[in-house]
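Repro:
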Amino acid sequence: MKKQFLTEVAAFAYILLFSYAAAAKLFRIDMFEFQLKLQPFSRSWVPFLMWAIPISLILIVLVLLFPRYRMMGLKLGTGLMIVFTGYISLAKFGYFKNPPCTCAGVVPKFTWGQHLWFNLFFLSLGVLAILIQVNKKNLKLN
């Protein structure tokens, strides 16, 4: 029962985090586009990314809302957190020269180190929830 609760907490945390992030990006799409143009990758990607990122976040939230698809949502959300955490790690350790944070709310006020810990928390939560579900499924098979 406790393990199922942790999985539900992880799903709920991702729902809150991704909903908030998508809404913040869409409500300030002009600011999000400006920040993307300052990123250390080709500007030709900006029109695609400025819509793909928030839409991906919303789609993951929708998948997480349905218990039948929750495992898929956890995997997608954790995969996205791996990508975001990788990018933040590169920024934290100086791989990019002064990249801006395209996050919303209080997160842009974080240092790169704080942001890394924030992401590692959510990443760990997702990985743990997935491992619990895989272990639970394996126990049923035996």
